[in-house]
Design goal:
By secondary structure, the chain is an alpha/beta fold. It is 39% helix and 11% strand. The protein has a 5-stranded mixed β-sheet, sandwiched between helices. Strand 6, helix 7 and strand 7 form a beta-alpha-beta unit. It comes from Medicago truncatula (Barrel medic).
């Protein structure tokens, strides 16, 4: 049974799938759980392209229903978070886990949220079915950039109409077009690069080498799109960004992801460990794992993860802080 909360999957005639909800604590075992999370979202279900429900099959009680765009529910809280689904549905679900987990610290409740996601992007990038090679993935992204921008803008519009008052995008790749998709919206729209840079700045880290600046390592599987904005945000806070050289990336990092996609888990782990060690040897304080693929390789108890950070944790903490601050402002709506 749920102590408090509601999730509703809605399939409208003109909109993608999206979820309304107020996060909750669950007394039973959850269907999906992140590391060290004691409070989490119990279950989420989606509709298929025909509007049929895919049942979770775990006995969890959920409120659900179809409604048309004419009768669309709109959340009215001034601190409602709008979560823009990116390329991966899984990364969106993981981010909702993070919202529930970080919100529950110190006995607090998760802010209200509305989520919009659909399978268009993953289909366009050929990310469903058989796993594409890293090179094929990049080729598909380059060919479908305009589609991605239009899709993300449409989601923002849906979220705004549904009552969102602040936006978060839990997708590293989609942030490459943050500037294009945010300029037409008046809502606060957090950037994951800003969130990471500010948290690292507030950590007041000391350089590994006394004569140098603080160095931050960056690993991503979409370097052509992701590196630029992370470098910009981190360098603006005085950090030096350290990347793998091209040869190491092509012979270590790319094969690590390809091995994971072939289900060679041990091979993927060994290669990723080498990539992280290469950056650590170059004197970085921490390594940013700016890819959902990379976050899924090492086991949660691997010592190397203590030297790595997941940017989506910073994004979750920042959007929660925005929501808590906004809720305290009288008459703001």
């Amino acid at each position: 049974m749920l102590e408090r909360g509601m999730l509703m999957s809605i399939q409208t005639l003109n909109h993608p799938q999206f979820l309304f909800g107020v996060a909750f604590r669950n007394r039973t075992q959850t269907q999906y759980r992140t590391r060290s999370s004691n409070s989490s979202i119990s279950s989420v279900f989606l509709t298929d392209e025909s509007g049929n429900y895919e049942e979770p099959g775990n006995g969890t009680s959920l409120m659900r229903g179809h409604i048309s765009s004419a009768s669309c529910i709109k959340l009215s809280q001034q601190n409602t978070i709008g979560v823009i689904g990116g390329v991966s549905v899984l990364s969106t679900l993981v981010f909702l886990e993070k919202l529930a987990c970080w919100s529950s610290r110190n006995g607090k409740e998760c802010p209200p949220f509305v989520v919009c996601s659909d399978p268009v992007l993953s289909k366009a990038l050929s990310l469903r079915g058989s796993f594409p090679s890293t090179r094929t993935r990049i080729d598909h992204i380059e060919l479908n950039q305009e589609l991605m921008i239009q899709n993300l803008r449409h989601k923002i519009n849906v979220l705004q109409q549904s009552g969102a008052r602040g936006l978060a995008l839990p997708c590293h790749l989609s942030h490459a077009w943050h500037k294009e998709i945010s300029k037409d919206s008046s809502l606060p729209f957090l950037h994951v690069g800003d969130c990471v840079a500010m948290e690292l700045k507030n950590a007041k880290m000391k350089p590994i080498h006394a004569t140098s600046t603080v160095r931050i390592g960056l690993l991503t599987t979409d370097s052509s799109f992701v590196v630029c904005y992370y470098k910009e945000k981190l360098q603006s806070q005085g950090f030096e960004v350290v990347l793998l050289d091209k040869a190491t990336e092509e012979h270590i990092l790319v094969p690590a992801v390809d091995a994971l996609q072939r289900k060679d888990i041990e091979g993927a782990r060994n290669l990723l460990r080498i990539a992280i060690h290469v950056l650590l040897v170059r004197g970085v304080n921490v390594v940013i794992l700016a890819s959902d693929d990379l976050l899924g390789i090492l086991p949660h108890n691997d010592p190397l993860l203590k030297k790595c950070i997941d940017p989506m944790d910073a994004l979750a903490r920042s959007i929660i802080n925005w929501a808590e601050t906004t809720a305290k402002v009288p008459g703001r709506f």
